[in-house]
Amino acid sequence: MKAAYIKATGSSKNIIIGDLPEPEIENNDVLVKVTAVSVNHVDTFVRAGSYKTALNFPFVIGRDAVGEVVKVGANVDRFAVGNQVWTNSMGYDGRQGTTSRYVAVPAERLFHIPAGVDPIKLVASVHSSATAAILINHVFQAKSAETILIEGAAGHVGTKLVQLAHTMGLKVVTTSSEQDFDKMDRFGSDLALDYRKSLSKQLEKNDVAGVDYVVDTSGKVALQENINALNERGTVGLITAPEDNKFTFNVRKFYTTDKAIRGFVLSHATVDQFTDAAKLLNQRMVDGFLLDDDIIEKSVDDAAWAHKALEKNEVRQRLVLKF
């Protein structure tokens, strides 16, 4: 079968487009004929070896895919041949990736594509959307009427955070460029702030005494500034790091106001968290949310180009490779 794979970690030049044996499935697996995969920054980290995880070589790259069920294991009863499905947690922790014509997916990591939802838009969305869903529901355990500040809200993860938080009944405060204010309003922001201006002054001007949660999707906001914006017992969620990989903050003031910092990456999400997120994402996608990404569609043959383009920040759109 056709696949994009590596024989060792390293640069994007290590990606090979070639033939590999079709995978065998176990009793709890589903064999999926892949139609498209998305390429995310984490895929480049795994390929390069900078994200340490168990890999079996030759290793098929990629973690998110959409496709059609062609065979089910003896213990699988949630799927049948012909079902349209998606997955977003392959390609790490010893599991082969998704950029191959066929992939054996554990049934617990596979989900149905809802009727009427475009598979290409879905696969472009699910990495960012699942990150947002698990962060809000499981890391923050946020409740309706609480306030969340989303910085860099016009980016891939930011737009998903805004939409999900809005539909869950949270008060949403966003920072972005002024040219994105209309987008923020459309996605559900209750208060759009200019990222170039003082956060504290803008919050004060709009009578926002504090927020319950902060997520900086850019890594460009000083941690102390975000801690200052928190209510007592509030939480900062870290999903990226500043360029120098360092933060400084007032420790005494931090712990005496019972505030918290929580780090999160999707690669450490549990199966239950992925399952809960998938249910929410499918519901919201049916309702027309989360499918707003600008997408560049390429052939699987362009896998090396896609990795290199992401690493060099040459594209802002979502990248989807098709068979």
Automatic annotation (TrEMBL):
GO terms for molecular function: oxidoreductase activity. The lineage of its organism: Bacteria, Bacillati, Bacillota, Bacilli, Lactobacillales. It comes from Lentilactobacillus farraginis DSM 18382 = JCM 14108. Residues 10-321 form the Enoyl reductase (ER) domain. The keyword NADP applies. Keywords: NADP. This is Alcohol dehydrogenase.
